[in-house]
Amino acid sequence: MNLLTIAWKSIRQRWLASSLTALSIALGVALMVTVLVINGIVTRMFSQSATGYHMVVGAKGSAMQLVLNTIYFMDRPIENIPFKYYRQLKSKSWVKHAIPFNLGDTTEDGKYRIIGTIAEYFEVDYVPGKKLQFQQGHTLEKPFDAVIGARVARAYGWKEGQTFPIAHGGNLGDIHAEKFTVVGILAATGSPIDRGVFIDLDSFYRIDGHQTSKAEAEAAEKARALPADQQEIVMPAEKLGEQKSQPVAAQQPGFIPDEQKEVTAILVQTLTDSLAFLMQPRINKGPVAQAANPIEQIGKLLRDVVGNVRTMLVVMTSLIIIVSGVGIFVSIYNSMSDRKREIAIMRALGARRSTVFSIIIAESVLLCAVGGLAGLLIGHMLVFIAGPIVESRSDILINPWAFEWQELAIFPALLVLAVVVGVFPGLAAYRTDVAKGLSD
Amino acid sequence: MSLILKDVRKAYREPDGRALPILNISEFHLPSGEQAVLVGSSGGGKTTLLNVIAGITAPDSGTVTIDGVEITRLHEVGRDRFRAQKIGFVFQTFNLLPAFTALENVLLGMSFSGKRVDRRRAEELLGKVGLSHRLHHRPPQMSVGEQQRVAVARALANKPSLLLADEPTANVDVSNQQTILNLIRTACEENNVSLLMVTHALEVANQFSRVIQLSDFNRPEAA
Fold first, then answer.
1. Least CB-CB distance to B112: which of A10, A12, A355?
2. Which of A10, A347, A355 sits opposite B99 (nearest CB)?
């Protein structure tokens, strides 16, 4: 019969007090696990998703809002910029990929964002080394084609061929008459892309209310006009309004000239990282748009907000665990007066002082270990249960099976705590007077 | 096994600081395999003497030699090991651990000896004391007589050469007293274990060929 068995028997003998102390440890550990897992998910989701593009170009305003809106489909879009700006940016020699995004509309029930974009979006790496895969169908090819993210497909049960309308500006009372057809369903990425409904950009402009009038476009362009030297910094090769040729499609009915189109944002991959670093301030100096570095913005968000909250929560949960450890100390220490006789019996049977000391330490370790394991399970169950709620309220995708390596550090820490809180009761057992204990 | 005590003295400290002599034994000898009963008045030092022999309480002076080993010269860890391996203890109040089953109480006695825990032997011992059907019962689920029988099995678990029994029948009902006594004596005879039993009961003492009056060789007042 080893020490752990003897300690376990003793724990079972005082099952109520033991269960309560183990439960307090379990709750502390569960809270810490939840904090670590959700923090890990949030950090990973934000930092991974931010790595696919060198910059996000959009209307002037909050750079953070631009990034959150374009990469994470969170927050409201700022404003639009002229479509011609996109054309000119795309033509630059330092630009590898420029993907236009038009945001603002939602699915009929307002749950998922509609993103007007082009087929090129599905061909570039959304994070370095990772391309989007189709679990069904194909990319955007014809007008009114739509590609949907895995989560949207799961939520609505949509398959290829499904048609759907969209709500203008997220206003559920203003549903566009035009219907889009699902031609492709993306494989799950664990990123915000899973929540996107991507529609053909040209078709987006054909929807009533999605293009500006010619007069509005001209007025807006005049308002943005700046001295030529400043425009040169932004667009060294061309100036706004200088586009000489229109596509052949200009001759076709329903064609909308570029002047009457706008984009909400442009996702940009440059040829090299340093080019992005070089061009970002130049774009920002111009009058039309701002360029935000997604990694920088998200780094700021994680460092300044999420990081501090995480630290605060980890400190709080650590304190809870320490308080629970004190509970174990009190529970075992209080039981010592009742157990002097038991300890004396064991000593009379030949147990050494170090043996009875070790039994008490083992008891403390077992309580912490059982509490810790229960806490680990409860923590993950909390994540599992809370995941969908957090997802629906924050747009953060929660993987219910996520595991953080920091969780492994909880157990050595608990072991140290168990030994520390077990020392004093252990010493009381060590010092037990056998003859007195037997005669009591 | 032989037990030899020489010039053993033990005194307790009273609250006012004065020494209260309990033991002053110039010589005591219990030959190998002998069964003796120790009688004496309450507070006369019988339990202290058993504790000194078992190495639980260290004497103030003198030597205790068991099987040629002078245990009073051993370090505490050595005394613990010696006690676990060579001395069996049966207490008046049984002193079973309530959280452990009968079998586990016997195994517990084995596990402190440093030897391999022999589950089969533990079951056999419990069988010999008539508790084969009670192996997995805990002390509160057993009668007083059954509990003392478990205590006897536990005391014999490590094949001791000396069994110390401190009034083992005092808390047992009359119908069980003789059974327990016979059990202890027979087990000691079969295993060639020396027995030193403390009792107040004359009817118990009268069954032993050697009855030792503690006062005959203990002179605490002279210490």
1. A355
2. A10
- pTM given for the model: 0.70
- Output the six-digit token pair for A237: 């090769």
A-chain CB neighbours of B139 within 8 Å are none
Q: Which residues contact B178 (CB under 8 A, 6 or more apart)?
A: none
d(CA B158, CA B112) in angstroms, rounded, equals 10
DSSP string, chain B: --EEEEEEEEEEEPTTS-EEEEEEEEEEEE-TT-EEEEE--TTSSHHHHHHHHHTSS--SEEEEEETTEEGGGS-HHHHHHHHHHHEEEE-TT----TTS-HHHHHHHHHHTTTSPP-HHHHHHHHHHTT-GGGTT--GGGS-HHHHHHHHHHHHHTT--SEEEEESTTTTS-HHHHHHHHHHHHHHHHHTT-EEEEE---HHHHTT-SEEEEHHHHB-GGG-
Whole-complex ipTM: 0.89
Give Cβ neighbours of residue B17 (< 8 Å, ≥ 6 apart): none
Query: How far, in Å, CA of B220 to CA of B202, rounded?
Result: 24
Q: What is the dihedral of CA A22, A24, A27, A32, to 10 degrees?
A: -100
The domains located in chain B, with CATH, are 3-222 (3.40.50.300)
Residue A70 contacts B where some CB pair is shorter than 8 Å? no
* Contact list, A438 vs chain B (CB under 8 Å): 51, 56, 91, 95
Whether A119 contacts A140, CB under 8 Å: yes
Mutate to test the interface with A, among B77, B95, B117 (most CBs of A within 10 A): B95
Other CB atoms within a 10 A radius of the CB of residue A363 amount to 29
Choose among B205, B223, B213, B222: nearest CA to B44: B213
B42-79 pLDDT, tens digit per residue, is: 888 888 999 999 999 999 999 999 988 999 999 999 99
Q: Given an 8 Å threshold on Cβ–Cβ distance, is A350 in contact with B84?
A: yes
Q: Could you read off the pLDDT of A48-77 as tens digits, one per residue?
A: 666 788 999 999 989 989 998 898 888 778
Contact A341 B104 (CB under 8 A): no
| Calpha distance A310→A302 (Å, rounded) | 10
CB proximity under 8 Å: A 336-355 to B: 341-342, 345-355
